[in-house]
Amino acid sequence: MTSPATRNGVIHLAERTPQLTGAEMVAALVPPPQFADATFETYRADPAYPSQQEAKDLLSVFAGAATPAKGGFFRRAKRPETKPGVYLDGGFGVGKTHLLAAVYHAMPARRKYFGSFIEYTALVGALGYQNTVDLFRGSDLLCIDEFELDDPGDTMVMTRLLAELVTSGTRLAATSNTPPNALGEGRFAAQDFLREIHAMASSFQTIRIDGTDYRHRAVDGHAAVLSEPEYEAAIADAAARGLASDDRFSDLVGHLARVHPSRYIKLIEGLSTVGIRDVEPFTDQSAALRFVAFIDRVYDAELPIRATGTSLDLAFPDEMLAGGYRKKYLRAISRLVASTLA
């Protein structure tokens, strides 16, 4: 078999050591490529779940894209409560990120930012807390996708940051798969941080969005698994059209531990396809969570994944799926199935 290192157009992610400055992190705080043109008009609410249309109407008003009218238009939508933020609570693939990006695009704001939860916490790590507060103070809108509070440090940092920004007049819009009062449950001693969690929740009006994962509406089953010859052909084809990566699963997972999650976006920069050989189930939860963060970036970049070994959706064993990070893993599984079939 030809060594991947000798083929043109193929790289090893495990050999990349990306760097990301604070300025680059700030510049990246915009909606990901697939939502660069997301609007309320292009959001297709599922008529089987009225809460989707109701959420769209509420957020249109919040963003200033529409105003409630007496009678027919928005008759089911109430004007958002007098809170500085909206919080979209719903399952996977119901359009939360699309609606969040629509808020970002529709709000006539001079200074606005859109990023994942991990990007904001990484920025604090890179710039320092006070510098981050100074950077965002006075901004009109902060959009936070996939709000996750996985450890006490993140809880304290984000609640303090949001409290200071709300005081300065910043409006907030966030998405998550967990209602704000329940963030952190099953992951750390949430009762020790209940005051901070509840204080943060009080800044948001929660908007529930029900529905089924659109990525699975037309497709059912597992992530696609290729034979070795099929994999070789797929990577060669991708390399002929652009830049493809080719890594053994164990090498990639090990390398992710040496790269801060905020740099995963640079890790996959320039790629057209991600190749992963010899996938196997995780035995370490920290490694699994880093892989989830990596897959989030791959999915945002709309990169197809080609893989051999265990089906990627089966890489998370039952004991992990039964734990406090269940929703994170299920989100990753949903995205992995979609990415391997792309």
Oligomerization category of the chains in this entry: single chain
How many structural domains?
2
CATH class of the largest domain reads: Alpha Beta
- Uncertain regions spanning at least 5 consecutive residues: 1-6, 69-80, 185-194
Helix content: 25-40%
CATH architecture of the largest domain: 3-Layer(aba) Sandwich
**Main sheet, how many strands, which sense, barrel?**
5 strands, parallel
The CATH superfamily label of the largest domain reads P-loop containing nucleotide triphosphate hydrolases
Shape: globular
Overall pLDDT confidence: 83
Quickly give the structural class: alpha/beta
Q: Tally of extended strands?
A: 9
Kindly list the characteristics that best describe this protein.
342 residues; alpha/beta; Rossmann fold; five-stranded parallel β-sheet; four-stranded parallel β-sheet; 14% strand
Q: What would your notes on this structure say?
A:
The longest helix is centred in the middle third of the chain and has 16 residues, at 152-167. This protein folds into two domains: 4-19 and 215-341, Rossmann fold; 47-211, P-loop containing nucleotide triphosphate hydrolases (Rossmann fold), CATH 3.40.50. By secondary structure, the protein is an alpha/beta fold. It starts with 9 loop residues before the first strand and ends with a helix. It is globular. The chain is built from 13 helices and nine strands. The chain has a five-stranded parallel β-sheet, sandwiched between helices. It has a four-stranded parallel β-sheet with strand order 1-7-8-9. Residues 1-6, 69-80 and 185-194 have low confidence and may be disordered.
